[in-house]
Amino acid sequence: MTVSKNIVNRSSLASSTFTMSLKRAFILSALLLVSVLSTNAAHSAWFERLIPQGESYTVSEIDRDLAFVIDGFIYDARTSCFLAVSDRVIFFEGRHGIDYRATVYDLDSRERCQLLLRGRLYQE
C-alpha 61: how far from its chain's center? Predict the structure, then answer.
């Protein structure tokens, strides 16, 4: 009789050890999942802060990838820019209509473009 009690006690001890290890594995995997998800959220918030803030302007006319009209001012591209009509831009470096050199950030394609101010567009 004592032999069967020993076997029962050992098997219940083994099953309780197994359940404890399953609980630990579940808790560790849950913690790992939470840490990965919170890291992704933190990174996306960090990348959102890189997008410049400010007043947005709309590209109204383009001449190939060389010249752009943004809110009544003509800009030449210093580098190849892929802006399209109706793209929304924010002036990242420089002020709109004031600074000769400016860098705009295209909110639609999320790219930067370096521009030179040519002058005001006068329409008759």
Answer: 28
